[in-house]
Every structure is written in C-alpha cells, then in structure tokens.
Amino acid sequence: MDRIQIADKEFEIFLENDQICKRIRLMAIQIGVDYEGRCPVFIGVLNGSFIFMADLLKELTIPCEATFIRVSSYQGTESSGTVREIIGITDNLKDRDVVIVEDIVDTGLTLSYLIGELRQQAPASLAVCSLLLKPAALITKMDTMQYVGFEIPNEFVVGYGLDYNGLGRNLKHIYRAKSGA
Ligand code: IMP
Predict the structure, then answer these.
(1) What domains can be seen in the chain, in order of their start residue?
(2) Mind listing the pLDDT tens digit for each residue in 73-113?
C-alpha cells in the first residue's frame, strides 16, 4: 500500500514499519547503555506516542516504569489566548530519571512547555526521546532532545500513532502528504 487516502488528503509511503522498528531497536540499545543501573520513568505524551512507546519499551531490557500524560490546549475564559494543562501527571518525579516520549516534535512548543512543568518536580535528570523531529519547524531551543529516531522534512506525516484529523493512527507505516494534495 504505497498510497492512501485519508479524508480529503492523499498520502504516500515515507517510512516503512521495518525501518521504524530497526531504528527503535537501536534507540533502545542506546537508552539501555545510558541508563544502565538506573530505573528511568518513561512518560509517553498521548495520543500520538502510544505505538512508539509500546514498541520502544518492548525493546528495553533495563528496569523502568511507564506512564502517560496528555497536554490539552483550551481557550481560557479571559482573553489570554490558549491555556495549556497537563492531564495525568504524576507528582512523584523528584530525584527520578525521567524520559519524555514523543511521537513528533514540530515547533517544539508543546515539549518546551512540558519540560518547564516537569522540571518543577526536580527530577534527577530529564531527557526527551522523539521518534520524529522536523528541524526546520523547530522554533524553540531544545537542549534536552537526546534521542531522535528520524529527522524529517517539514511535511505533514501520518500513521504509526500520528493522525490526520483523528484518522490514521492505526497505520503500520508512516506516510507523508503528497505535495499539492
Ligand atoms: P509542536 O508543539 O509544534 O512541537 O507539536 C507537537 C504535536 O503536534 C505533536 O505531538 C503532534 O500531535 C502534532 N503534529 C506535529 N506535526 C505533525 C504531523 O506532521 N503529523 C501529525 N501530527 C503532527
């Protein structure tokens, strides 16, 4: 299935599942080496990270904990614009080695907000593991981005947890929007 249609958009294959899984195995080896003798807590950012988080953690052989959070954006009652809130955040991260697991970092705004909030709990360390990164879209400085699966062009992608208007998260491969589509 090289091309698919989701709602009004046509997508073409970009990263095959085999390629994604191979990369994840290497990332897990690296994380295993870096966190040897420790017990990090992995925090998956929903919804997009659920497949990546599962596949990554299945490849890890070090002891670890796993939990999920969601960052919601909503309009405040005041005219202050978008207000964010973290749902499901644990409050026991003090002195823990924390790894945030993201599907994709685009502008980096979600992540920098998240990092700011999690740092307030004084974790022993804080790292970010993202399957995808769009360097050209990044508008924030990201010095905690230790693990990146693939750097990709600034194009819209779907599949393997990522959605287009709520659809496509279940696709095995990652697809990109066809130009002009
Ligand atoms: P950021 O705050 O701009 O870095 O946005 C991060 C979030 O936007 C991700 O967690 C995704 O939910 C969503 N996102 C950004 N780029 C894409 C894309 O190409 N496809 C699907 N979702 C995306």
Answers:
(1) 14-32+40-176 (3.40.50.2020)
(2) 765 444 444 667 889 888 799 999 999 999 999 999 889 99
